[in-house]
Request: fold
Amino acid sequence: MQKSIIDRYNITFHGQGEQVILFAHGFGCDQNMWRYVAPAFEQDYKLVMFDYIGHGRTSPEHYNRDRYASLQGYAQDILDICHALELDNVILVGHSVSSMIGALACIQEPDRFARLIMVGPSACYINDGAYVGGFERQDIESLLEMMDGNFLGWANALGPTIMGNGDRPELSQELTESFCKTDLDVAQQFARVTFYGDNRSDLPKLRTPSLVIQSLEDVIAPVEVGEYVAKNIPNSSFRMISATGHCPHLSAPTETVEAIREYLSRTN
Amino acid sequence: MPDPTALLPGGVLVLDAESRIITINPYACTLLGYDEADLLGEKIDRLLTTASRIYFQTHLYPLITLQKAADELYLTLQTRERIWIPVLLNVSTHDQDGEIRTYYAFIPVYQRRKFEQELINAKKSAEDALLRNDELRRLQQQLQSQQADLDRQIGLLRHRNDELEQFSKIISHDLQEPLRKINLFADLLTREEPAAFTTMGRRALDGVARSSARLRALITDLQLYFSHDVRSSDKVGVVDTEALVHTVAEEYSAADTLFQVTKLPAVLGDREELIRLFRHLLDNAVKFRHPDRPLTVQISGTVLSVNSFQHLPDKYRYNDYVRIVVADDGIGFDNRYREDIFRIMEKLDARSPGIGLGLALSKKIVEKHNGQISANSEPGQGTQITVLLPVA
Reply:
């Protein structure tokens, strides 16, 4: 059971502490996203990282379109991992869409999670009446088209034949082991589920104490969107950091680490 | 020699660590309709369509940061006049005296993009057709095997039902009859002169009376359990669970017993059955209260999405259910038994009243509603029973 779940989600373990921090990556990348932030917690925590099915080093053969037709299927991934590894009192750190996935997991099993830390969350990306999510449906359709273009011209074309390394497979191997590898079908359904999703009604149900880490300038989850999330979750803190962009854990790891650490020590 | 990027027939862009433009060549400025001065210090987002901004933040930025270089990326730029320009770009990142610089070289690919788009569309429709075909074939096979399965299950269930019906008859009639006779004879004996018995004989007679009373209670409970109809009820409607729980709680009200009912969402179900369900649950909470303190039972509810397939593996359909948690601060039990307690005749404490039918019946009622029931407990702390019922 444990072994199969570890292979299935390419779970990796780091750190010497007792309490578990479970890191969940967002749309577009894999667990490598956490490599600048995670080492800071190795001393005091047990770190668990994974890739969603179809991302990183997981095999797309485990992908199930019905399961991943909503964020619930992804929340089930987190719960399945916690069950198989018997993780309790977990600090869950989710980036981007994994903030909402994490919230759904915490709502399902409130007793399993001690804290939820959301990096750049949004409860709804599409504008809806007075609510400003930042995007229109046609923006998302263009995004899906762009993903098509990149996978034709990039992932496929970088395969062994075009690179002319057919006789030196180790070179192609190196290329396919690049970061942030995702399966196109998986990524496109993930994009739809993420950007067309609306989790605003789930926010008040969250009981786990939570922190929203908000970048100063983030085109994907602007400040108002992060504030909306924090305001509508009971028992939630809001922390603005001066990082720019949607990936503060990559662009400003020190500040991100500091925000997480400060929250954990303050609420301990 | 003058700066070659000034005359280079391709776009050159250099960004700092915060994705602000620090160099842009004349080709790029002309293409995008800006003066160099308009763009210096601006964020790259200014030159991107909305979709490209998402793609940049979610895919390109992480990739470039972690991998330091990427080739043949496709992105759509946006001119000052909001005209879209598809471009192909190569990127590399360098650390120059502690400053991170990202170099972009790009060319517009109007024509190629059109061809590519057509290729993608053709590939997609071919794949779709193939997939649909494959999918249909797979589903057909699945359906056939499931139909065979279903047929076998129906046969099995019919057989089981017949057995149960017979069993039920045996309980209600065949077992009752000798029991009635035992009672009758025992009753006759008790009317004898007390002197007619030895002390031993008197004790044995009391034992017979006690045991037969217990047997009668057992048979009544068994009958109740097995005659409980598992077929779905035709009296299903919207049930105001909050009002219902309040009513049931009143039946158990006592000076040192507190029921805290918070807002409960309405469910779809059979009212009578649900009353019975909550009666069993509250009855248990009251029965297993802690002897040293007043009893508090908290009943709360939320709506959440749950996979409605409970038996077939790898099948998913998430539907909304109401989760109702009945939490008491009673004596609790060892969590090892959290599944056993729903089995009929399973009693953790032999001294407790009843035969341990309540939770088995509760499970039956909940499953009849296509719901789920589970328990969580800690000795000395209390028990939490969680019920999932379809939302109204």
About this structure: The longest strand of chain B covers residues 84-96. Helices of chain B lie at 26-32, 36-39, 50-67, 110-190, 199-227, 241-251, 271-287, 358-368.
